[in-house]
Amino acid sequence: IEGIYAHIDEQTPKLRENLATYEVNVRRNLEMMPLVLDVPIEAAISDLQIGGIDGEEVRRLFDFLEFRALYDRLTEVLDFDGGAAMGDIDVIEAEMITVESPAAAIEALHALPLKGPVGLAGSFNDAKELLGLAVTSDVEQGDVLWVRRELLADPGVAAAVNETIGNIDTDLCGHEIKATMRALFDLGIDLPGLAIDTALAGYLLDPAETSYPLEGLLLRFASKELPGGDAAPDGQLDFGEDTVDEALLAGRRALAIATVVAPIRESMADLGLTELNTKIEVPLIRVLAKMEHLGVGVDLPELIRMRDDLTAECDRLRAATIEAAGEDFNINSTKQLREILFDKLGLTPQKKTKTGYSTDAATLEKLRDDHPMVDLLLQYREVEKLRSTYGEGLVAEVGPGDRIRATFNQTVARTGRLSSDQPNLHNIPVRSERGRNFRRAFVAGPGKTLLIADYNQIELRCIAHLAEDPGLIGAFEAGDDIHNATASRIFGVESDAVTVEQRSKAKMVSYGLAYGMEAYGLGQRLAIPTGEAQVILDAYFEAFPAVRKYMDDTVAEARQRGYTETLFGRRRQIPELSSSNFRIRQAGERQAMNAGIQGLAADIFKVALVELDRALEKSDLSAEVILQVHDEVVLEVAPDQLDATRDLVVEVMASAFDLRVPLDVNLADGPTWASAKG
Fold it and tell me: Taking a C-beta distance cutoff of 8 angstroms, is the pair 394, 441 a contact?
């Protein structure tokens, strides 16, 4: 150091400047760097040596993290006893018991040793048709009964399944079992005694994952694995006439399910998820399976007519757009569209992407008034999306009895909300008149009418309950127009002086808070500057201070714990809260704000679905739940039982959970979805 400073003038200008500026720090660091050799230490060097390796614990940890290759490399370089190498993990193998006649199947079903967890696995072909059913409760011996679909279709065998597995008083377990339950409904087989679905349990333990394969759960929770090699991937069965292979694959999975149940249950109990699983999620599987089995009726000629009308409108708008552009081009080609908009017409680009100037909807909206072609193009895109997604898409999904049987998912949304696909009935458009028209095609079955029930402003009622805000609670208890009451407090005017614009802004703030929306998002929604949106938000929190405190406390608690938790015990991990990136942390805070609200609303709706199905089964009513869309439930009802069904629906849904404010239920009915809801 002394040598450096003795020759400081010989250094480069920048280095010379830095050395001079920080000389005090340099010399202080120099004093601190020498090792201190006279610290009194009583321990000997041998006492400080690292001890042995807990091989079993290392194996358990690496097994849990699925670091199989890394574990093998570790054991090669370190000398420790880790028990069996991960490459030698126990492999699940099934001893199949097959039956060839209805009489043999009935006898085998009644002879099943139904003790402990009973693993159930259906096998499906590429067309998603049930091939057969594997059942086991004998984890030690590995014996699995296989019953082909042809036998299950026999009334006597179906009755035997209902008498044995259907009336089981021990644990009936499956993995993604809803598809199997739905297929069995077609054969007259009902399994009301389901105790656990291991895929659903995996979701409850970690809702951030995108999938919950049985193989991963088996390795993680039971340190076992399914045979590899000749076993086809799940969902890719193609064995021709060889039913033995179909049986073996299903048998292995049934055995794996029965094996992994105990440790998964233990993990759920440790996290306080048992009641959520047993009281809400598992009973809901059967409700959703019934909905998928029944489906919702459609007026196929009307659906085809709507599709054809949209096709004609697309053709008209495409031709008009090309005419306005002044030359022929591929309207669906982004490259050609850029050339027309920005090169030929000379419109001003709004933003640039990696491949060139953007032609997305936001960009085109800003250019709508700059040239007639842009408005035509936006209209074309709207109609084309309706035509392809709903016109063509819904027609393709119409099945037997002119009914659409969508799939409802419990393990997709992190908040616990249900989702829908094949087709996604949750996305039937409602914001445009063209989109709303599709509701006309959804109809009640012969001799039935539709009854539609939904919760009124459930997210806002959840906010009032969770925040315990006196202003919100008072408005709901008084039955006031909540958006009018909110606008009155935000803008400081009497209720009867609130304008339509003020009410609209208050409504946007209220619902935005349920999704963690901040000033920027509110400004975008209201088309106002962020600063003005912040003033409105600040006024809201001044009017309802308990809501602000709830939001802040929720974020702080989530940051400390790493997760949020609903009143029903549903957890959601939010690792974004610990990110070093400010924007990611902000996103985590928004997730934390809305998780408790959205999660509670989702849980209440699921309770309502389960209790409503249970109440209908106990009643003398011939009403059935056939569809769920967001916070809306659709029932098919005999017209002469409409009043009684309405009373039952309101009673069940209003009492699903004891909120600080009433759970208000809206009802509507009609021969079509459109006539009921408009």
Answer: yes
Helix (H, G, I), strand (E, B) or coil at 572: strand
Q: 3-state class of 330 per DSSP? A: coil
Whole-number average pLDDT of the chain: 88
Please tell me the predicted confidence (pLDDT) of residue 231. 42
Whether the CB-CB separation of 418 and 200 falls below 8 Å is answered with no
Given a cut of 50, whether residue 234 has pLDDT beyond it is no
DSSP string, 491-505: HT--GGG--HHHHHH
The Cα 201–Cα 278 span in angstroms is: 10
Residue 415: the pLDDT is 87
Closest by alpha carbon to 638, among 663, 650, 620? 620
Both tokens assigned to 320:
């008009």
Give the pLDDT band (50/70/90) at residue 232: very low
74 is written with which tokens?
Answer: 């570790």
The CB-based long-range contact list for 204-209 (8 Å cut-off, 24+ gap) reads 204/268, 204/273, 204/276, 204/277, 204/281, 204/570, 204/571, 205/264, 205/267, 205/268, 205/271, 205/273, 206/573, 207/411, 207/414, 207/416, 207/570, 207/571, 207/572, 207/573, 208/414, 208/572, 208/573, 208/575
Q: What are phi and psi of 405, to 5 degrees?
A: -115, 90
Minimal CA–CA distance to 623: which of 567, 674, 669? 669
User: Which pLDDT tens digit goes with each residue over 241-250?
Assistant: 444 588 899 9
* pTM confidence score: 0.82
Count of alpha carbons within 13 angstroms of residue 433, beta-carbon side: 1
Name residue 631's amino acid.
D
Q: Which residues contact 306 (CB under 8 A, 6 or more apart)?
A: 391, 437, 438, 440, 441
Which pLDDT score is estimated for 59?
77
